[in-house]
Amino acid sequence: MKSKLPYILIAEESENDRNSLVQELERHIVYAAIEPVESKSELLNVLEDCSWSEYPAMVILSNTDDGFSARAVVDRIISKPCFSDLKIVVMQGSDSEPVVYPDCVRVVQRPVGRFELEDMVAQIDKVLIEELQFC
After folding, report:
1. Nearest alpha-carbon partner for 78 in 52, 49, 47
2. What is this structure's pTM?
């Protein structure tokens, strides 16, 4: 991804959920580019392949089980000093077992409806604005 905008890298296995999330983010967070990927393993590949100038401002991943646990992915990301400024958001499902994440990870309730999706996007927007110090 070669964008001058900060960008958000999203790993969501469900195509419908991924498309809904991307649409809502693009509608409300116009100052950031959105880059969706289909799995957490693909997210790790993108992060490992990009140069320091191409790192995303934020990654969003679901805690659904696709062969990689969200906790394992988070641990792998935070173990690398080059990603120390990366904001990480994990979407936790209401029916899934609660997972404890490091303090640097923001856990949000996985949206199940339009209003919850809008609320989650507002939370993400707030985190990015604070981090990027946009007015």
Report:
1. 47
2. 0.85
